[in-house]
Amino acid sequence: MKHTPHLVMLACFLAPSVSQATDCSRWPQFASNEAYLQPLSIEAANTDDHLNGSNDLEGIIIAADLEGRDLQLDVLHYPGDVTAAAALRVIFMIGRLSDESYDRLVLIDEGERLFYIAEPDLRSVGCRFIWRRQAGENPIALMRDFYSNLYFVETDQAVVRGLNGSLLGDTQRVLQANNEVVLPAWILSAIE
After folding, report:
1. Per-residue burial over 81-111, b = 16 or more CB atoms within 10 Å of its CB, e = otherwise
2. 72 - beta bridge partners?
3. Which of 70, 123, 127, 159 has the lowest CB atom count within 10 Å?
4. 20-79 per-position pLDDT tens digit
5. Which of 47-51, 68-72, 116-120, 168-172 has the lowest mean pLDDT?
6. pLDDT at 1
7. CA atoms of 92 and 112, how far apart (whole Å)
8. What whole-number distance in Å separates Cα of residue 116 and Cα of residue 26?
9. CA pair distance 27, 32, nearest whole angstrom
10. What are phi and psi of 2, to 5 degrees?
11. Sequence-distant (≥ 6) Cβ neighbours of residue 64 within 8 angstroms
12. If we measure between CA atoms, which residue out of 130, 102, 141, 101 comes closest to residue 118?
């Protein structure tokens, strides 16, 4: 019993971060009293019903389906005059608003599973994302965190490789992956 406190401390360090990352209490500076920003406030399976038609989506129409423990997200309609940044905004909103009834978000296009991010990693980005006002985390920092944890479904390989902590270098790699890999594969078929 003499070593029990050490074992408890070790268990805390070794325990999975899922329980910590699936609520937003770790980021109190990004808390809000506004109803539209309440973390974990919508059922993951109803994400599309909740967000479609919202002015926040700027005319983007999504389909979200819970398949087992995967929340699959497809973009059905993407207006041609909406910026590419809106696609990530949709993902970050889901990361903040959806409940924790899934293990990973899978980006799909016309039924093809393309990329995934684990729910705790998505939550850590979503909890820090605020929209309709200036208050959230720097969007470039959110993009770097998001892409640091995004993987190809087919190979389980990271979408962005070679991240080394260099602000400019990592940002360049992330933007390149966003513009040349992820967005063309995921939303191109939905752009009108």
Report:
1. ebeeebbbbbbbbbbbbbbbebebbbbbbee
2. 65, 106
3. 70
4. 447 899 999 999 999 999 999 999 999 999 999 899 999 999 999 999 999 999 999 999
5. 168-172
6. 46
7. 21
8. 23
9. 11
10. -60, -30
11. 44, 45, 46, 47, 48, 71, 72, 73, 74, 94
12. 102
> Could you write out the three-class secondary structure of the chain?
CCCHHHHHHHHHHHCCCHHHHCCHHHCHHHCCCCHHHCCCCECHHHHHHHHCCCHHHCCCEEEEEEECCEEEEEEEEECCCCCCHHHHHHHHHHHHHECCCCCEEEEEECCEEEEEEEHHHHHHHHCCCCCCCCCCCCHHHHHHHHHHCCEECCCCCECCCCCCCCHHHHHHHHHHHHHHHHHHHHHHHHEC
Count how many residues are written for the chain: 192
Retrieve residue 21's tokens.
């990352």
